[in-house]
Amino acid sequence: DVKVTQSSRYLVKRTGEKVFLECVQDMDHENMFWYRQDPGLGLRLIYFSYDVKMKEKGDIPEGYSVSREKKERFSLILESASTNQTSMYLCASSLIPGKSFNTEAFFGQGTRLTVV
Amino acid sequence: ELKVEQNPLFLSMQEGKNYTIYCNYSTTSDRLYWYRQDPGKSLESLFVLLSNGAVKQEGRLMASLDTKARLSTLHITAAVHDLSATYFCAVDPPGSGTYKYIFGTGTRLKVLA
Predict the structure, then answer these.
(1) What is the DSSP track for A2-59?
(2) How near does any CA of chain A get to the CA of B81, in Å?
(3) What would the mean pLDDT of A8-23 be, rounded to a whole number?
(4) Dihedral angle sign, alpha carbons of residues B12, B15, B17, B18
(5) Where are the beta strands (DSSP E) in chain B?
(6) Nearest CB to B99; choose among A44, A90, A97
(7) Is A85 helix (H, G, I), strand (E, B) or coil?
(8) Within an 8 Å CB–CB cutoff, is residue A34 touching chain B?
(9) How many CB pairs under 8 A join A and B?
(10) Hey, are the CB atoms on B101 and A33 less than 8 Å from each other?
(11) CB contact under 8 A, A96 and B99
């Protein structure tokens, strides 16, 4: 089974702090994603990466950055946390097109971040 | 820009009844996904629909895809309480070169005993 593991289930941080959210997958997937989930807004894509050291902006990248130094690990960084970044953050991974018919994304358990 | 809309957003139904959740998307795509999310949990993949006319069934849930109409449906047959969850559809935007997964806002389903 594909396993996507996020480093924390719950985090509470102060405004202005630098925050790191870590995600690791064990299925050798090329693609990795960070989403945030807010009530009534569904899941919104923050950043994704299709290879080591590669990254692309999603729909809401402002206030976030990412790092992918190893294939299995994708980090989301909040340079200076703000209260409007309080949310559920979900990491996901998937294969690249053409490798398999298993094209869906597999999700981690989520990190609920509260910025106070 | 690809937009994905689901309706209804909330659905409360009696056990034993049938209902359909709709997922409309704004630009061409040949890949559509349905996910389930239980409260406080992550997303679990239900169905992957890869071509026009695709139909998949698992238990009381059946999903279909009409790429010409840019519409997918998730049909619930004889609902049971265990199906209470939030259901999301996601679409892969064309021309992205890789999978990208743009999600709808979700449909929160509550099945009443």
Answers:
(1) --EEES-SEEEE-TT--EEEEEEESS--SEEEEEEEETTTEEEEEEEESSTT--EE-S
(2) 22
(3) 97
(4) positive
(5) 4-7, 10-14, 19-25, 32-37, 43-49, 55-58, 61-66, 71-76, 85-91, 102-103, 107-112
(6) A97
(7) helix
(8) no
(9) 64
(10) yes
(11) yes
Q: Do B33 and A41 touch (CB under 8 A)?
A: no
pLDDT in tens, B80-103: 999 999 999 999 877 666 778 899
- Residue among A31, A35, A90 minimizing CB distance to B99: A31
For the segment B14-58, what is each residue's pLDDT rounded down to a tens digit? 999 999 999 999 988 878 999 999 988 899 999 999 888 889 999
For the record, the structure tokens of B20 come out as 């359909």
Cis peptide before B8 (omega within 30 of 0): yes
DSSP helix/strand/coil, A83: helix
One-letter amino acid for residue B100 of the chain: K
Residues A30-55 have a mean pLDDT of 93
- pLDDT exceeds cutoff 80 at A2: no
**How would residue A68 be classed by pLDDT, with cut points 50, 70 and 90?**
very high
Asked if B98 lies within 8 A of A97 by C-beta distance, the reply is yes
A35/B41 touch (CB, cutoff 8 Å), yes or no: no
